[in-house]
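Async update (no meeting this week)

Hi team, since we skipped the sync, here's where things stand on the single-chain job. The sequence we agreed to prioritize is pasted below, unchanged from the tracker. I ran it this morning and attached the output directly underneath so nobody has to dig for it. Comments welcome in thread, and please keep replies under the output.
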Amino acid sequence: MNNKKSILIFIDWFLPGFKAGGPIQSIANLIEHCSSIFDFTIITSDRDLGDQTPYPETLNTFIQKEGYKIIFLSPEKQNKPYLEQIISGLSFDVVYFNSFFSKAFTIIPLGIFNKKYKSTITIVAPRGMLGQGALNIKKAKKKIFISGSKLTGLYKNVRWHATTNEEQADIYKLFPKSKAIIIAENIGKKQAVFIPRIKNSNELKLVFISRIALKKNLLFAIQTLSELKFNGHIIFDIFGPIEAEDYWEQCLAEAEKLPKKIQFSYKGELNPNAISATFSQYHFFFFPTLHENFGHVIFESLAAGCPVILSKNTPWRNLKEKNIGVDIALDKPQEFSSSILDFLTLSNTAYQAMSNAAYGYITNNTNSQLAINQYLKLFDDE
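Output:
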């Protein structure tokens, strides 16, 4: 007899997709660590972010995978009547929405649950979408939607999933009458093998791994490098799907201004399984993001012994005193420049100390069981 609690998850994109980044990884890691505790069922789209063609999978019918059951919905099936049909044929204890603004995978199905399944534990994970940095993108449109959702009571009875104290505060700020906002930290990916790399003085290999979109702030990174005056050589390689063509054109135009001593290259999209090995080829991860709820890619960088150059808009803070990188406010571009110049001149001995500290920090501070216990509370009947 199966006594495991059944968790129904709605998510815009999921494996084998990877272009949406952190939200996919968050759920994949949750299933990897908790499939022996919960039965997971996933309802998702039939293609990766930005793709025109679907996965080579059977569509619009449930498929059993390792640790979960999943259905890939084609665009014409992402509507209220079909979602009602699917939901009516399932057994579940908890429904979990891995987004805030998604029409097909949060707004429509949440409306169905509010009307027909009021006794079901209903959880919404904003995934950083309610942070100020994220809200400032398409600000007017998001403000109108949030106001409308309050008038209709769309989120009135949900249990919120926050992954940090900061995200909990962001949710309270917008929804002060919330019934419950429970913190359950993201579970990191299992740590890869550490591969040391050599760092010569006046040589610096920087990498950016993320979606190419306004939120990830690649343009700021390029502008920072274009202002540098130094002796030596810098490599700056970019990996990630181009989500916003206009933004990418701005980045390329700015890259034309880079001094010849900076080698700028776009390396294309990167399979998640290759991220750790890729970080092992670089000295620092340069990621001045506008907002990250967790930042799985930051976790993977540190886990690969690659220190980080971050904005302060992530949960990864006080990095300099840990000797694993820097976190700097975006309104202080000169501090980014100064840090990069400092890292450029690092000796191999000094760099190895940072690299080892980065790897050790993840090794010593990752507590998967603590996070699993938090999810037990999140999904509990209370």
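Quick observations from my side:
Residues 119 and 267 are 49 Å apart (CA to CA).
The two ends are 23 Å apart (CA to CA).
Reply here if anything looks off.
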